[in-house]
Amino acid sequence: MYTARDAGRFCKGYPSSERHTMIAILKESASDEAVSHIVSWIEKKGLKTDVSRGENETIIGLVGDTTKIDPFLLESMDVVERVQRVSEPFKRANRKFHPEDSVIDCGHGVKIGGDQFQVIAGPCSVEGENLIRIARRVKAAGATMLRGGAYKPRTSPYAYQGMGPAGLDLLCEASAELDMPIVTEIMDPRDVQVFLDKKIDVMQIGARNAQNFPLLKEVGKTKTPILLKRGMSGTIDELLMAAEYIMSEGNDSVILCERGIRTFETSMRNTLDLAGVVMLHKMTHLPVVVDPSHACGHAWMVPELAKAAVAAGADGLMIEVHNNPAKAKCDGAQSLTPDQFDELMQFIGKEVEFFGKKMN
Questions:
Q1: 3-class secondary structure for the chain?
Q2: Degrees (nearest 5) of the Cα angle 253, 56, 84?
Q3: Which of 60, 172, 306, 329 has its CA 20 to 30 A from that of 294?
Q4: What is the pLDDT of residues 8-53, one digit of tens each?
Q5: Which residue did the predictor score with more confidence, 316 or 99?
Q6: What angle do CA 72, 77, 81 make, to 5 degrees?
Q7: Cα–Cα distance between 95 and 242 in angstroms, integer?
Q8: Angle at 242 between CA 62 and CA 52, to 5 degrees
């Protein structure tokens, strides 16, 4: 509830970063007509609104210069339970705007978030016809989504860069045969239309592009689900602000991915931040996937990290699998064999059920 002291915060002299958003929590008795009326009243004041309807309450987020709105007048309306200011810089991704978990539809009947847990598996990069053999194995083991990079961002310009459009075609063929959504990385805003034309189910933004703002804005203009990886040196706030770039353009179908962060430790490729998974679930309504393969860089560590991620509340896993890791063109050292993936999935299936979630 607001106090007289709080009221002063909405004067024009208050820092703009802290007067750009507030939320109105409506009473349970609020009708659809009443909600429409208050939304219309707010928007006529020049603000944008974001309406979130949950089982127990409806929340209207106000985005813009909230000095145009008297919080006491808003709170005095019959349908309004209370009004509060949101100080965090991310708005649409904020759990205060959307208290209930978002569930993202990835196509082919696969949804992630809430009580829906999914496993994304496949090779690091699309290398050719072996993709379909790997895809068949991971699907048989219980994976619900297929991953594979047609475009590969590499530290060295001389390393394998992926097959490009031909790789996308192979992914689409595998998807059609196995009825699985595909997840593949996009690196350039100019390729967005290509991905749309080929009907890619989920576009991945890799760690190196986590703050490529033109790319984030461009994919935000689509309706395609986006799997957004955390930057290797990115904070949780920076990850959520990257999601905000996408959502501010109109695309709310964002899946966050913890893939390890760069620390002073050198025995592993990165350090998996499972505490970050727990924190993200407190701060945002968006689903959170964990990629244990990139987090450690060692195939022998992946199963244990995957199990720990489920226990930490992850909404899904993203695991690299290759039928011959020793000959993989990219990241073979962190890829499980199909047999190893089979063994892991037998455990994961039971663990997911134990923690009250469901796999397709």
A1: CCCHHHHHHHCCCCCHHHCCEEEEEECCCCCHHHHHHHHHHHHHCCCEEEEEECCCCEEEEEECCHHHCCHHHHHHCCCEEEEEECCCCCCCCECCCCCCCCCEECCCCCEEECCEEEEEEECCECCCCHHHHHHHHHHHHCCCEEECECCCCCCCCCCCCCCCHHHHHHHHHHHHHHCCCEEEECCCHHHHHHHHHCCCCEEEECHHHCCCHHHHHHHHCCCCCEEEECCCCCCHHHHHHHHHHHHHCCCCCEEEEECCECCCCCCCCCECCHHHHHHHHHHECCCEEECHHHHHCCHHHHHHHHHHHHHCCCCEEEEEECCCHHHCCCCHHHCECHHHHHHHHHHHHHHHHHCCCEEC
A2: 80
A3: 172
A4: 333 333 334 444 678 888 888 788 888 888 999 988 888 888 888 8
A5: 316
A6: 85
A7: 16
A8: 35
Q: Is the pLDDT of residue 77 over 50?
A: yes
**Which of 100-114, 236-250, 321-335 comes out lowest in average pLDDT?**
321-335
CA-nearest of 60, 88, 94, 87 to 74 is 60
For residue 252, give both structure tokens: 């709310």
pLDDT, averaged across the chain: 90
Rounded-to-integer distance, Cα 182 and Cα 120, Å: 9
Distance between CA atoms of residues 141 and 144, nearest Å? 9
Global pTM?
0.84
φ/ψ of residue 95, rounded to 5: -65, -25
pLDDT tens-place string over residues 118-158: 999 999 999 998 999 999 999 999 999 999 999 887 777 87
Q: Specify the higher pLDDT residue, 172 or 49.
A: 172
pLDDT of 343 > 70? The answer is yes
Q: Which residues, at least 6 apart from 71, have a Cβ–Cβ distance to it below 8 Å?
A: 2, 6, 7, 10, 22, 83, 85
Pairing of strands 254-258, 226-229: parallel
